[in-house]
């Protein structure tokens, strides 16, 4: 029987071609129609059972049953592997021959690579004895649309009787290409790995007046400025220095002329935290600061709070299994412990609310390179050299995780 690594190597030319094809044809969240069709077609060609049309229409499940059930494993549940398919509204500047052909849309977060890796894993696993069933989850709308949550609600983890395919999922693994991790390496940590992602829109309303006569009005720009400054006190004065919170205002909109104090100001941003208690405290203090500071300036504030993705927290047992499999497959020198969580967010977090989950980082940075274009930059491109490591890891996790 050929090794996993040999089978991956045989598939690599086709996988690179597929990755380039997906990169050329990016689709935004909830519009991944072509990508979904490609995924379903390739899963069927690999011999997997397929269920399409999930999560609003573009989510796809694949399923390979066990060929040599491991009764000693104590469970007939499947191992799930997940990939995301959507692209971003960014104009590409990579200069690659396979650059996006869709104006203003590109795979700037590497989901073309993630999708290709999971398709490769399906091809390889179909040729191997499987002690456990394997569920392949291809989800839409990771970039802000909560496609992971939609897949869970549609039964992706519950097996045939719950709206999915085959046996219910017992554990799930997912990956993300990571520009700061060296090529050939993988990394993760138990517990929180990525932050929760709550967003806000604040409207501060005052009384409009002439810019030369501010005493006839109530200046919402001044009130908003005080609010934005005071909000940084959440991190510096309300949260332990050993905990983590980010409050970022990314947009401010106000005014029509240089000599008019406007009636209202809108500012928009995000709050990131790493545990539920801090998340609740940050939200409470946010409302208190904005509403009371605005009131002190003679204005009124309305906060529209949008609860985003939960913290992506890795299950300790699933993470320990990941480390064991990765060290055995790649060698201990290529497996790293992530020292600190990152304040980015991921909707892989939803799967971990239902079954033990482990999310890990796949190295993209070329050896010897000090930097590599990072996620959501127009110069970013998933590194093809990471494909074989990603496919091998997903296969090994399905077989031994």
Task: Fill in the keyword field for this structure.
single chain; eight-stranded mixed sheet; Alpha-Beta Plaits; four-stranded antiparallel sheet; elongated; 16 strands; Aminopeptidase; 401 residues
Polypeptide structure, described:
This protein is α/β, with parallel strands linked by helices and 401 residues long. The chain has two domains: 4-193 and 311-400, Aminopeptidase (3-Layer(aba) Sandwich), CATH 3.40.630.10; 196-306, Alpha-Beta Plaits. It contains nine helices and 16 strands. It has helices spanning 4-24, 33-45, 111-125, 147-153, 220-231, 233-238, 276-296, 316-330, 387-400, and strands spanning 49-54, 59-64, 78-84, 134-139, 169-182, 186-188, 191-194, 196-205, 209-210, 245-254, 260-261, 264-273, 300-306, 312-314, 335-337, 357-365. It has an eight-stranded mixed β-sheet with strand order 1-2-4-3-5-16-6-15, with helices on both faces. The protein has a four-stranded antiparallel β-sheet with strand order 10-12-8-13. A two-stranded antiparallel sheet has the order 7-14. Helix 1 (4-24) runs antiparallel to helix 3 (111-125). The longest helix has 21 residues, at 4-24. The protein is elongated and about 85 Å long. It starts with a helix and ends with a helix.
């Amino acid at each position: 029987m050929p090794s996993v690594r040999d089978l991956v190597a045989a598939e690599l030319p086709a996988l690179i071609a597929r990755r380039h094809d997906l990169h050329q044809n990016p689709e935004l969240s909830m519009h991944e129609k072509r990508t979904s069709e490609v995924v379903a077609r390739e899963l069927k060609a690999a011999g997997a059972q397929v269920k399409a049309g999930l999560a609003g229409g573009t989510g796809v499940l694949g399923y390979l049953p066990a060929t040599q059930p491991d009764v000693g494993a104590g469970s007939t549940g499947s191992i799930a592997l997940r990939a995301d398919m959507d692209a971003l509204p960014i104009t590409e500047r990579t200069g690659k021959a396979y650059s996006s052909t869709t104006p203003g849309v590109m795979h700037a977060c590497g989901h073309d690579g993630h999708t290709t890796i999971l398709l490769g894993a399906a091809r390889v696993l179909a040729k191997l004895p499987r002690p456990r069933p394997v569920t392949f989850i291809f989800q839409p709308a990771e970039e802000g649309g909560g496609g992971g949550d939609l897949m869970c609600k549609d039964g992706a983890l519950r097996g045939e009787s719950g709206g999915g395919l085959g046996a219910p999922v017992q554990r799930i693994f997912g990956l993300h290409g990571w520009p700061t991790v060296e090529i050939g390496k993988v990394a993760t940590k138990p517990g929180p790995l990525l932050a929760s992602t709550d967003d806000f829109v604040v409207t501060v309303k005052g009384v409009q007046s002439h810019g030369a006569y501010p005493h006839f009005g109530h200046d919402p720009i001044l009130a908003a400025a005080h609010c934005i400054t005071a909000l940084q006190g959440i991190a510096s004065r309300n949260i332990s220095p050993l905990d983590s919170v980010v409050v970022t205002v990314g947009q401010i909109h106000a005014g029509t002329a240089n000599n008019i104090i406007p009636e209202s100001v809108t500012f928009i941003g995000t709050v990131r935290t790493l545990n539920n208690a801090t998340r609740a405290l940050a939200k409470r203090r946010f409302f208190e600061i904005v509403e009371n500071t605005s009131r002190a300036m003679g204005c009124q504030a309305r906060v529209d709070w949008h609860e985003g993705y939960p913290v992506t927290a890795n299950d300790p047992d699933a993470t320990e299994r990941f480390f064991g499999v990765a060290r055995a497959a790649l060698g201990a020198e290529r497996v790293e412990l992530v020292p600190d969580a990152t304040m980015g967010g991921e909707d892989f977090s939803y799967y971990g609310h239902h079954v033990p989950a482990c999310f890990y980082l796949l190295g993209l940075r070329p050896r010897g390179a000090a930097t590599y274009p990072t996620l959501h930059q127009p110069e970013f491109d998933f590194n093809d050299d990471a494909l074989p490591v990603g496919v091998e890891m997903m296969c090994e996790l399905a077989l031994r995780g």
